[in-house]
Structure prediction request, 585 residues.
Amino acid sequence: MAARGRILGWLNVTPLMLVLVPFFVAPILVVLAASFFQSDGYGGLIASPTLQNYTDIFTSGLTANLYAETIKFTILTWFFSLIIGFWVAYFLVFHVRSPLLAIGLFLLCTVPFWTSNIIRMISWIPLLGKEGLINAALLHVGVIHEPLEFLLFSGFAVVVAYVHQLTIFMIVPIFNAMARIDKRVVEAALDAGASRLDIMRMVILPLSKNGIALGSIFVVSIVMGDFFVIKVMSGGGSASVVGALYEDVGVLQYPSAAASAVVLTIVVTMLVALILRTVDVRKELTR
Amino acid sequence: MTAARAVNVPAVSKAVAAHAIAPRASGRPWTFYVLLAVFVFYVAALYGPMICIYILSFQDVRGGLVFPMKGLSLHWFVDLFTQVRTGDVKGAFDRSVKLAVIVTIMTVVFSFLAGLAFRRRFAGDGVVFYLMIGSLVAPGLVLSLGVGLLMHFIGIEGTWYTSAVGAQLSWTLPFGVLVMFAVMSRFDRAWEEAAYDLGATRWQTIRLVVIPILAPGLVAVALFGFTLSYDEFARTLQTAGSLNTLPLEIWTMTLNVTSPSLYALGTVTTIISFMIIAICLGTIATMQKRRASRVPAH
Prediction:
């Protein structure tokens, strides 16, 4: 029976593996291999092993700047999406009394997730631009006399676009974790004389920890792996790790692109592993 | 039996919830109003900008990228589908929808099977699970580059209906399987056991018991599959071959086109997305309602 279950289990995941092996495992291995090759300058690869691509990365001052910039945006996005996502989820689970209304409002938050990210990003242009709605409104009210320049094509715009796109990745897992909290636990805490701050600190936060970790994995890995938001919303003012990688691909420098891809993958994996230490994701997801 | 339970649970938890949150009789705490403001602000910021570009896409020929609105016409929609300047939008659109349909079907079938497998432990299940998580968090462009190089080494040309399908599946499948986990966690093994006890074969059990019960969840997986594929960008970039999909076309346009036809494209593609979302959510709601109304008859 056990043997039969094992075979059946593997039969059922075969299609999944037939996708993951050629389209996840193999590409990673190919990139790893290519990172040790030399470029012939015309998009071809010369298969003579070299560490040149890696020494280039680690001796270039640019690399540190790229990572500093990317990690800065990652931390800012993570922070704001966590704050907003946590309170939105908390509001939906603990303050909306009708479960049906809570689910309706939850769906309202998730709908934009299923629409185009690029379109959602460019939709900030009419608002944040120099002649955009926000500047026009502020000028009209008289708060400012010159249009604010930092709103669009700036680091500010990049963070706004990321938080706009990614807060949903915080809301969904935190909402799920909070919805599983037995309301009687909260009640028991109240009966035992806990203040509302105590309840937040000692009941809600520990019990939504897993949701927070899961959302953080999504946000961190997406921002670290993204380049088009930074490219468009910063107006070329900020660079990113993947942006530089894309430039390399554009000029057919595959080996150096592959080397920076390997370094990036290791950094992202380490960040995710760090978050995973705080939570058993598998238990959280399959429960 | 099942629906009776489904109906009972919310009723009980609702009573408990009301009691727990408002133990001191009536009145909302001040934090309610603060958080309500946060929520309203969030939803406004979520939808506000999108609504702006839908409005701006209906300007006439004098229209620009910002308010105020100049005239009212469908000029930019016509422009979008006729002008050569904006590229092959029609073809890209066509390819993206077909690609999304292929990816959706494969995502639903593969996720369903994987969901069945993960209900019990099997040797090596951890490896499969972490490969899936890895595929989910790996930077899209890195995988895209890898697939591109792999095709290059093997010596085959990538196309949107071959390599791009695989590249997109490496992104939609993990999502699909995660949704299946959530769906499966509410599936009671006893129903399946009962079917076996009544003499159903394995296939009959899946077809007549498991799939009908999980149907709303499978529609949800389809929703994820379609929309994630339809909007996928980074993984398709190096794998779609010479012909663009819609997100790639939009990407090119954001860099070159500075007219409201960009917004018009945004409006058109969002209408498609909303239609898909409405169909899927509507189907799920209808299934649930039919299920709830069917039970008292038994």
Remarks:
- Residues 88-256 of chain B form a domain with the MetI-like fold fold (CATH 1.10.3720.10).
- Chain B has twelve helices and no strands.
- The two ends of chain B are 9 Å apart (CA to CA).
- The longest helix of chain B spans residues 261-294.
